[in-house]
Each structure stands twice: as C-alpha cells, then as structure tokens.
Amino acid sequence: MGQADYLKGIQELYGAEVEGEGMATRWLELTTDPEQQYKLSLFLQLESEAKVRLRPLLARYGISLIEEASQRNLGAKEAERFAAQPWKEAMAGLSKLCLPYAQRFRSLLDVAPPEDVPLILFMIDHEESFSRITGREAMGEAAMATELVIMLAHPFARAESPIRS
Prior knowledge:
Blueprint: H1 3-30, H2 34-60, H3 69-83, H4 87-107, H5 117-138, H6 143-148
Helix pairs in contact: 1-2, 1-3, 4-5
C-alpha cells in the first residue's frame, strides 16, 4: 500500500463514521420504542465521538473535514432497512456490517506512521467492539446499555420523566 492508498484509507475511516452517524440519526427518527431510542442514542454518540477523534488525523494530512452527503445518505438508507426488521434481527445484521470496516482499517497498520497507529488501533477496536456488542444484543442481552455506554467519552443516562410540581 502506497501513500495515496493510505490517505484514501484515512478518508474511509472518517467516511465510515459519517455513514454510521447518518444511520444512527435516521434510525433514531424511525424508532418509537423508548428502550431502542436510548440504545440508538448511544450508537449515535459513539459514532459522533469517533468522528471527532479522527479530525486531527485528517487535518494532519490536509484531508477535507467536509462530510460527504452521499455517505450520510447511505447510512440513512441502511437505517430504514434495519428499522423495518425486528430488533434482534437488525442487531445481527449490524454486527456483521462492522467487520469489513475493521478489516479495512487493520490493513492501514502496515504503512501507518507510528504517530497514527494509536488512532487506527482505536478505530479497529471501535468497529470490533460494536460488532460484539450488537451481536450480544441480537442474542437478547442489553449490551448496548451496559457495554456501549462505557465506551463513550461523554456518556449519558436514560432520560428521566419530567418533574411535576
């Protein structure tokens, strides 16, 4: 892999998070179940935080931070497909969707300069961990609410009922 392919891979890191953010946002719009809304909010937060972490890496190489609308739209289309499925089935599909990204990002390690390696390793772990968590959700475990929430730099709890006076 040459420098041009490496830079393309760096752009793909960012694009994957834009796509994931688009997916989480649209899926959240389509969901009425409060428990699923909470879990999808955590998914949205995870994708947003990862995207923000990648911006300094893109800036280092002069790669545009402007998000491609087509990537966000692709995520939204995927969300519509997943939202039409039962939760466990959708989680099983989402679990499989993450793994090719992890494999692609792993290929970047062969040529990554030492200063980039920690962030690329973070992204590999991000994809593999999310795959594992959604796989557990597919088996009926509440892994998003227990495992995903602790991956967040800025976690949040479920919304509480409004206080009435």
